[in-house]
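Quick one, T. Sequence first:
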Amino acid sequence: MAKEWSKIEAFAHFGAALTNLRWSWSARTTDGGTVILALWSDRFSRKKTPTEYEEAIGGRTPEWIARPGNRERLRNLIWARDHCDGMFRVVMVRAKDTSADPREISDCFPKDDLFMRITYLNEATGQFGAVAIVRD
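Structure tokens:
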């Protein structure tokens, strides 16, 4: 049977602690060398090689964009872009209901074999895209 991970445990697996269990969706290690993002599994496009991810912000209100979790994630994405060659690690998150807003987590786990690199970042909204990369 596969291990069941809490969000805290999944981030800790990569050496990072969440600022807030409820609203944090990203973190970075204390040395700043690694950024970790929780990404919804259904937002990956595996039809293309390499695999792509796009965070859908369309239709989000200014209040949502200003929420602490989105602002923190944006800071961490900017950090990854500016200090980590655009790369970050992934905590994979599955939604109980992909059409719900807000979503609830069904389960999550650290994705050890997945490294992503930011392909674009909208600093006004936090919308971003990323692509899977191969690491040596």
